[in-house]
Protein 1
Amino acid sequence: SNTKYLGGKVNVIRPKGNAQYIASLLNSKVVNFWFRQRFGMTHMQGGALPINAADLKKIPVPASTEEERRIISALYDEQKYEEIDNRFFELYRLSSEEIDIIKNTD
């Protein structure tokens, strides 16, 4: 059987488009910071945030070109997460002060 079972509450995302880019966005420091500020969330055991499907739809997705999405996807495949975060800082047009706040918030 091809049946898969997931324990606990799980959101399954079936992206329409570039899955690596979407995973990069959802796991970026800037989106994690945004969720904590917007919803007053704290990490659960294991570091996950308690996010539901309705919350995912509220994420402000930055404008990006196909080339930018391709580069971020390649960085995701190479597991270069710090570089991904830096790309998203640029896409969101954050100042150096805003970036410092995000990087120093856990």
Note: The helical segments are 19-26, 29-39, 53-56, 66-77, 81-91, 96-103.
Protein 2
Amino acid sequence: AVESPPPAGFDEYKPIKWIKRIGPNPISQTGTLRIRAIVPSSRSARLSVYSISGRKVTSQRYAGLPEGEAEFTLHLSNLASGVYLVHYEDDVRHRLEDSAKIIVIK
């Protein structure tokens, strides 16, 4: 994966984690995933879930968010058991991005 450039004022040599917390992981029957992430200055973000083979299985756009940390909820009860990647990105400038692995167990 290509690293996104850091926002102004950040140390370019320190990796930035935009996803701060994700859980529960593994996800069981309820299929509800909570994600705490940093909202960029654009106040718009997108969360996408990909199968391990790279197929996008769902995507949700969030706009008008307050800048700072926010909590997002994804309902993933329709996913089969397996390993997935949650991808979080700035939906306007596409400069800030982060990914996390999740496991779904049915």
Note: The chain is about 0% helix and 50% strand.
